[in-house]
Amino acid sequence: MTPASIRPDLSSASQIEHFVDRFYARLLHDPQLAPIFLEVAQIDLNTHLPLIKSYWCKLLLGDRTYRRHTMNIHRELHGKQPLQAADFQRWLAMFNATLDDGFFGQQTERARRVAAAIAGNMETSLSS
Question: Which residue of 18, 22, 51, 86 has the fewest CB atoms within a 10 Å radius of its CB?
Answer without folding.
Answer: 86
